[in-house]
Amino acid sequence: MRLLERLGLSSQTYSEVIMITEIGQGRYNAAPVGVRLVGELLVLRLFRESLSYALLKRSGRCTLSLAWSPDIFYRSVMNLPIPVRTPSGFTMPIVEGCDAAVEAEVVEVVEGDPATFLLKPLKTVVFRRMPRAFNRAVPAIIEALVHYTRIPVYCRMGLGEKLHEAINRIKYCVDAVLHSTRDPVMRGIALEILKHSIALADLCRVTPP
Ligand SMILES: Cc1cc2nc3c(=O)[nH]c(=O)nc-3n(C[C@H](O)[C@H](O)[C@H](O)COP(=O)(O)O)c2cc1C
Q1: What is the rounded CA–CA span in Å between residue 70 and residue 59?
Q2: What's the CATH superfamily of 3-126?
Q3: Cα three-residue angle 76-143-29, rounded to 5 degrees
Q4: Any idea where the domains of the chain sit in the sequence?
Q5: In what helix (H) or strand (E) does residue 49 lie, and over which residues does it extend?
Q6: Which residue out of 14, 18, 33, 95 has the highest number of ligand 1 atoms within 8 Å of its CB and is therefore the one to mutate?
Q7: Quick one: average pLDDT of 144-152?
Q8: Ligand 1 pocket, 78 CB below 6 A?
Q9: What is the distance in A from the centroid of ligand 1 to the CA of 10?
């Protein structure tokens, strides 16, 4: 089995990873993206309004870090600082403490919204070889973050019902976190996501149904 498949990447299921793209002058942007491995290529879809879309289109290069860490996902969505480092053989940084990372270059962009990027993996590094047991808390936090990132979009589109639905889904995810872990960090992140979501929705002029 090929290395990227062994890391869990698949053509059928999106793997949620942290993409790092170059802003310039030694600055980088990190954002969660869903990626699939199709044949030899990595395929991801980026909404045109995202910074990641503009940066990847411009530089044609990124790193994808596989990290089983709700804190890293939370930080990248909230634009908080993330520890990074550039491993040997890489030209760009990856997330410090990640399980594995890939540097890749764009070979094709199919425009649309989202636009589809096809990337060729150039270099892969693996740090973690021990399996991790599944839990409910980490996926629930990632799911809550996905709905959180949609709030501004629904707000701009004036979709009050969708906004209301997103908040309810976030509440459901937070409930799953609170029922599945005593870890104060994860519980804190979940409650912060809910707090930020309600604050964002309150700023939106769309009235929920
Ligand atoms: C787990 C997860 C997966 C995501 N996957 C994608 C994706 O595949 N494509 C995309 O455009 N946005 C995706 N998003 C939303 C972006 O990460 C989010 O809008 C982010 O704020 C964009 O940041 P940027 O403007 O710095 O690129 C995802 C969010 C989360 C939490």
Answers
A1: 28
A2: Electron Transport, Fmn-binding Protein; Chain A (2.30.110.10)
A3: 15
A4: 3-126, 137-203
A5: none
A6: 33
A7: 97
A8: no
A9: 19
Distance CA 42, CA 105 (A): 10
**To which residue do tokens 């993996």 refer?**
121
Ligand 1 pocket check: which of 16, 45, 49, 50 to mutate, most ligand atoms within 8 Å of Cβ?
A: 50
The response to whether residue 44 sits with its C-beta less than 6 Å from ligand 1 reads yes
Measured CA to CA, the distance from residue 151 to residue 29 in angstroms comes to 21
Cβ of 50 less than 6 Å from ligand 1 = yes
Query: Is omega for the bond preceding 152 within 30 degrees of 0, making it cis?
Result: no
Query: Widest CA span of the chain, in angstroms?
Result: 53
pLDDT higher than 90, residue 195 = yes
pLDDT tens digits, residue range 97-145? 999 999 999 999 999 999 999 999 999 999 998 989 999 999 999 999 9
Please give the model's pTM, rounded to 2 decimal places. 0.95
